[in-house]
Every structure is written in structure tokens, then in C-alpha cells.
Amino acid sequence: MTPPIETGSAQSATEQTIVCEVNGHRVTRRVNPLTSLLELLRDHLGLRGTKSACNEGECGACTVLVDQVAVNACLFLAVNAHGSKILTIEGMLQPGGGLDDVQRALVECGAVQCGFCTSGMVMRIRALVDEHRPNTDDVPSGMQVLPSRANIQKQLEGNLCRCTGYIKIVDAVEALFQNKYGNPA
């Protein structure tokens, strides 16, 4: 008869050490290779602003930025974050506790209702805004090509919101681009 496998020993043998930066802080953790980035953030690091909802990559509530790219943390393995810079909703907090420009635009346009999708939506919009940040060395002021309303809607397709109908959210993104770059989206 084969002796039973000790779960603790087997699990320890398969764990991997990852080193990454989360919200500007260096993090070193041993994780099971099947641990999702969502589990690392919420269960290991206590960052609960990243929401756990569908765990299938369908809703976008768990969206975070990994090296400035929006990803669904529920589908992204923590071991794949090794060496990366991760930004969560907690990292968006401004000095003195103020709102980030994305958060402020959503509030000012009435685009936040129940709030469950908000953290993921903020992160997805942050990636969109950063992607369209003008490079002032190459583009004269006011000449930056900004996303159209249709492009904004397309970019937000992976984030579900059952309360707003998306109109106010897209309005907020357009207003954000207008305020930041003085050029309508």
C-alpha cells in the first residue's frame, strides 16, 4: 500500500517565489503556480479593492494593470507577474487621499452607482488614458488623435456594469480626455 501524500509537503515543493512591484512596493511571495493574481492580491496581500466576481474573465471587476496593460486578475497567474509592476485600485489613491483624475471624472459625470464594477472600470479607463497620452515631442499641442466614442465603448467591452448602461461612463471618459488634452474625444 502506498503511503498518503502529505499535502503540506507536496504543496511546498511546487510553490514558486515571485518578486514584483505592487502599487510601488516591492513584494516577494511564495505561491502555488496555479494561484491567480486576484488571489495573490486579495488573499495574500489583503488588497480587497480588486473585486472577485465571475472568476472566468467575463466581467472585468478584477481588472488591474500589469506593466501598464489592463488584465483580468482572475485569469492571470501570479507567477506570470514575476518581475512586473502591478497597479491596483488602492494604488490610484492620490497624496492626501484625493481621487485620481479617472475616479474624479466618473464621479463628476454620475457614472458610479452601486460601485461593484468601479474599481475594474477605473483600471481599464486608466490603461486607455495612458495608452492615448500625447507624446509632446512628436505631436503638436491639440493635434493628438484621441479615441472616438465608439473606440471608448469597444475598450470598455470587457467590463460589465449592470447599473449605468455605460452612457455616463463613456461620457466621463470623453470629459476626461477633454479636460486633460483640450481636444474632444
3D structure, described in words:
- This protein has helices spanning 7-14, 37-44, 101-108, 118-131, 149-155, 167-181; strands at 16-22, 25-31, 63-66, 69-72, 85-87.
- With 185 residues, it is α+β, with helices and mostly antiparallel strands.
- The chain folds into 2 domains: 15-91, Beta-grasp domain (Ubiquitin-like (UB roll)); 95-181, [2Fe-2S]-binding domain (DNA polymerase, domain 1, Orthogonal Bundle).
- Strands 2-1-5-3-4 form a 5-stranded mixed sheet, with helices on both faces.
- Strand 3 and strand 4 (69-72) form a beta hairpin.
- Helix 3 packs across helix 6 (167-181).
- The chain is globular.
- The N and C termini lie far apart (70 Å).
Topology:
Layout: H1 7-14, E1 16-22, E2 25-31, H2 37-44, E3 63-66, E4 69-72, E5 85-87, H3 101-108, H4 118-131, H5 149-155, H6 167-181
Parallel strand pairs: 1-5
Antiparallel strand pairs: 1-2, 3-4, 3-5
